[in-house]
Write a structure and sequence with these properties.
With 401 residues, the chain is α/β, with parallel strands linked by helices. The protein contains 15 helices and 15 strands.
């Protein structure tokens, strides 16, 4: 049983309240059995903790460990040529309709072995862990057949076995229509997506169910059929919604009590109202906005007004967001979407945890997991302010460095 007392730290607890960042000056945190036993000013640490192993943080900043709540971390190949095509003037939709985009990654992922997928995924997971990330959501969706969807989810589980990181999996069979079902989206839902979901659930591989509601993907009616199955299986849902157009996906997701609706550049008032009523988190993905050179920003001010929690994630994927830095995503959320540094940090901690249905992490508070990040900075705004700079001093995962 390891007992440790961290002292003389600036602590951004990220607890909701009046104090910005939930700041505790010259604070201390008692860690026991992988949990936070106590947090408060160093001078007020209970006597019971004073004989524990001490670690003087010498004024460093402590935050909850970061959480990347939307990634496509597992895939085969890359789409560097499509990056060139976009720079030459082709749009994301044009590339997708010509057989590129998600479908091109599907071919590479189907051909890549489980072992090789894991090796490549771990390089991306390591980059996130090195920035203080303790939990990562990983989606399937580059298989679009039963065997490859299950292969991807197995690899996602193996990431958590190979590294000290929590992984939440999302079944994303409704990501795109594979070439063999071109023009037959409903048949794909019936013959592949729903059976793959049932198999993933039976194997214990899916923590949630996701979909892509968009003109180049699936209609709200088709997504609803997948969500009906998720509900029958007792799985929570989330949705890629309103990225390129407004099909009412966020409102649909909220109607199913979705954990989150993600992207949201074209979100309207009806979707915002529905999300607020359902408690659905808005996950913003500035990496995709940046990579696709979009111009319509998510309605951050309206999300604020309605009190909708806003999370920030990398959307790490080979096409629209080849980004494996959550710190950079935080900076982008402020620079591109005008979120405040406090909102950006909450978006990568407290609200990211909510977007994944995690109730034991995302804040520095007694009873929470001892998942912490210790930074060589004086103020939490520095984490969002800097570009291409990683000030992590130490990551604590379940109480251990």
């Amino acid at each position: 049983m390891r007992q440790r007392l961290l002292t003389h730290a600036t602590i951004a607890t990220m607890a909701p309240g009046d104090a910005p960042y939930g700041l505790v000056a010259d604070g201390a945190i008692a860690l026991e059995n992988g949990e936070i036993a106590w947090c408060g000013p160093t001078g007020e640490a209970p006597a019971a903790y004073r004989d524990w192993e001490h670690q003087d943080l010498e004024g460093r900043l402590v935050t909850p460990a970061l959480i990347d709540c939307h990634t496509h971390l597992i895939f085969g190949g890359n789409r560097a040529r499509e990056f060139e095509m976009r720079l030459e003037g082709a749009s994301y939709e044009e590339i997708a309709r010509a057989g590129g985009g998600i479908v091109s990654t599907v071919s590479a992922t189907r051909e890549t072995t489980e072992s090789d997928l894991l090796t490549d995924a771990l390089t991306r997971a390591d980059a996130l862990i090195a920035e203080g990330v303790s939990a990562i959501e990983i989606k399937s969706g580059y298989g679009l057949d039963i065997n490859t969807e299950l292969k991807m989810l197995r690899v996602a589980r193996r990431v958590a076995e190979a590294r000290p990181v929590r992984v939440r999996t999302s079944f994303l069979g409704a990501h795109a229509i594979p070439p063999e079902f071109k023009g037959r989206a409903d048949a794909y839902i019936d013959d592949v997506c729903i059976p793959a979901l049932e198999a993933a659930h039976a194997a214990g591989l899916a923590d949630a169910v996701d979909g892509f509601c968009e003109g180049i993907a699936f209609t709200p009616q088709q997504i609803a059929r997948v969500f009906d199955k998720a509900r029958a299986l007792g799985l929570p849902v989330k949705l890629h919604a309103e990225q390129l157009s407004n099909l009412g996906g966020a409102k649909l997701a909220a109607g199913y009590g979705a954990l989150s609706a993600d992207h949201l550049e074209h979100l309207d008032e009806a979707g915002i109202v529905a999300m607020a009523e359902a408690g659905t988190v808005a996950v913003l993905l500035p990496g995709a906005f940046y990579t696709l050179r979009e111009t319509k920003v998510p309605p951050v001010a309206l999300l604020r007004e309605r009190g909708i929690p806003i999370a920030v994630a990398t959307d790490c994927n080979p096409g629209s967001s080849p980004l494996a830095s959550l710190l950079l995503a935080m900076n982008m959320s402020a620079t591109l979407f005008r979120m405040t540094p406090e909102e950006a940090l909450a978006g990568a901690t407290r609200n990211a945890a909510k977007a994944l249905g995690l109730t034991d992490t995302g804040q520095v508070a007694a009873g929470r997991r001892a998942d912490l990040a210790i930074w060589n900075v004086e103020h939490p705004a520095e984490l969002t302010y800097r570009i291409g700079f990683n000030p992590l001093h130490e990551r604590i995962f379940g109480g251990d460095a």
